[in-house]
Design a protein that fits this description.
disordered N terminus; alpha+beta; 21 strands; about 20% helix; six-stranded mixed β-sheet; 8 helices; 3 domains
């Protein structure tokens, strides 16, 4: 009786191993769905696929038809590149016959952040049709996708949603685990060596995107022609685009936008409440500007620009950095642009209060890069914004 049980268990074990090996050794199209944060996704026999979004300071502008004499209507699409890593983290060799990759649109037509049916094919280096490649354990292939945008997405808000980066990707790989002496053969392919070639994107740098630069020029031309109403509409569009696509450059772009001056402002000699800005031990007279949820404070010497994004109707706020560090697009964000030294600072704590005399700011700020590097060094920034 004991011998029969042992034989049964051995037969079952051998059947399980054979079944497992047969399933993993089959040439199949397999899917990987992952996030673009580099964490990756690994299948049952150890093939891991990961992707990292590479930021690019580039937009593509699409103009819409307008009536003669009306301000331009447009929307912008943000460019992006994904960097892929295909790695064998298992114990067996893995044969790969072909692959394809897709990026998932950031928002679908119902306003949802993820919808697996909304994808765009990516152009990546492809495996030649006459060979397959074999990845040994711990071996990997890495490459960039070509530069692209979400042209075929149909989001709920075209003007905003196409400015966001992709959060998800999908990889479609025809592959098999090599269980045994050699890999299974597909359509006469032979095993070959293959190193995917791809050109990395240019570094983002601190330059303003050419599309934004063009829009700034159009705005300033309207100001010079005293077409202030059209200019104001365009200014709001520009700052909205930049706040989503390039939030670190809001202050820099705002400093390039000319300000309109009404006759009453030019002739007025009556004393009024003054705006001020204190940063790094220096107190400066400044000029405030308020448009809906976008508020700015520019020092009179134009060396420093403080910007508040998503300022609502509340009388007081507790400040944090969630807009920049946690992707909270509705949170209050405060940043300071040191224009002379080309540095950007982000508020990480403090308060903002609205009074009858203006907006009072008392916050702690850190240099943008130091937040991600874990530095504890911070600055105190205080200001008073009198909206003009």
């Amino acid at each position: 009786m004991m011998l029969s049980k042992i034989i049964f268990h051995l037969v079952f074990f051998c059947f399980y191993i054979a079944g497992y090996g047969q399933g993993e050794n089959q040439i199949k199209l397999r899917y990987w769905n992952g996030t673009t944060d580099g964490k990756g996704n690994t299948n049952s026999f150890g093939l891991k696929v990961s992707a990292i979004n590479i930021p690019i300071n580039k937009l593509e502008l699409v103009y819409e038809a307008t009536l003669s004499g009306q301000p331009p209507k447009f929307y912008s699409k943000k460019k992006f590149v994904l960097f892929f890593t295909i790695e064998n983290t298992g114990i067996n060799d893995v044969a790969i016959y072909d692959w394809a990759f897709k990026a998932v649109c950031p928002v679908d037509n119902m306003g949802r952040e993820f919808d697996a049916s909304s994808m765009i094919p990516l152009v990546t280096p492809y495996i030649p049709t006459d060979i397959y490649i074999v990845l040994k354990p711990n071996e990997k292939k890495q490459f960039y996708s070509s530069e692209t945008d979400f042209y075929w997405c149909l989001p709920q808000d075209v003007k905003k949603d196409l400015l966001h980066d992709p959060k998800y990707f999908q990889a479609l790989i025809t592959c098999a685990s090599v269980i045994g002496a050699s890999a299974p053969v597909k359509n006469g392919q032979k095993q070959g060596t293959y190193q995917p070639q791809s050109k990395p994107p240019k570094e983002a740098g601190d330059t303003i995107d050419s599309v934004v630069e063009k829009l700034v020029g159009e705005h300033n031309a309207l100001i010079q022609k005293n077409e202030n109403e059209k200019a104001e509409m365009l200014r709001e569009e520009i700052l909205q685009i930049v706040s989503i696509a390039f939030p670190a450059q809001v202050g820099l772009v705002n400093s390039k936008l000319l300000k309109s001056e009404t006759p009453s402002e030019a002739k007025s000699s009556e004393p009024s409440e003054k705006s001020m800005l204190s940063f790094n031990g220096q107190t400066m007279e400044a000029e405030g500007d308020c448009i809906d949820g976008m508020v700015s404070l520019t020092s009179n010497n134009e060396s420093t620009l403080l910007t508040l994004i998503n300022l609502g109707n509340s009388s007081s706020y507790v400040v944090n950095s969630n807009f920049y560090t946690n992707g909270c697009t509705d949170c209050l964000a405060i940043q300071l642009q040191d224009i002379i030294n080309s540095k950007t600072y982000i508020a990480t704590g403090g308060t903002v209060k609205k009074t009858s005399h203006g907006i009072i700011i008392d916050v702690t700020m850190k240099e943008m890069m130091s937040i991600f590097e874990g530095s504890d060094f911070s600055y105190t920034v205080m200001g008073k914004i009198v909206c003009e």
